[in-house]
Design goal:
0% strand, globular
Amino acid sequence: MGYNPRGMAQITRALLLSCFCLWCGTIPAIALQAPTPALPPPEPAVDVATLQAAAGRGDARAEFELALYYGRDAATDAQSVEWLKKSAEHGFADAQHTLALLYLAGGRGVTVDAALAAEWWQKAAAQGVAQSQYALAQLYDAGVGLTQDSAKAVEWWRKAADQGNAFAQNMLGKSYFEGKGVEQDGAVAIALWRKAAAQGHAPAMLNIGIAYSTGRGVERDDAEAVNWLRQAAEAGNLTAMNNLGAALASGTGTPEAPAEAVSWWRKSAERGDPRGQHLLALALFHGDGAERDVIESYKWLYISVLLTSGQNQVFYINVRDSVGTNMTSEQLVEAQKRAREWAEAFRR
């Protein structure tokens, strides 16, 4: 089977954010810091004896519910996983999906095994679980736990998209937009993104905005691009915040509004996006849309270096050092102090 170690962390992050975690009953955003999904507080009405009796008879649903019950306490993680595996082996789709997510992320005494994650998602996907179909497509697309296969990814995204899964609609649209695993068709891509956007899916809103700004799949319309970028930014998409800020700063598709541009870049920067930090730093250095402040400018550039690697980091280092040539040693010390304090607080 194919294995892509570079894609492992990225695919884990994406799936933890997008797959409905049946174990905890919500999207486990906390998994960005700790891969083991958090569980809800105990429900006093749980009849454990009845569950144990049914699970002992091989009732797959009871086995799954017993796994959830034991999963509320770290001291009984082993029992939780044991019952989860039994439920999955007895064909309960919810258990199969949850076990796959656990194998991908690790935790609760389970060792990361992308191939096993793919195996369990295949079983759940075959039973029509849309989140599992989406997850399986993601693995095929990235070549994690499976041999990379763009056509297979499209096949499973389509199944999930047909069930209304917004994440799958967005990714299937991306495939049509790029012609990856399917014949390129910008109009189909836009239609799929609109379906996802109607469900509040911010990445799809961003993609529609980019399409309008470039004229790919639709006639170019800068004002409409700004409309979609604003929707995506208001929904919390960091790339949209950065792009909307750029449109406002340049007056593309909207009247120039440098102060509003800075406000969007600041929101992106505060949420840890290096590009937003870079754009905010440049605005502060030049005094565009905000009072000129070289210390704050250098601070944000210093932070962007801490949060990046490779060629991106080299780029931000060069910009930071260029700004630094205009500062006194005292200003540099203060900027670095502020940056370290911000980074420490952000990591908490």
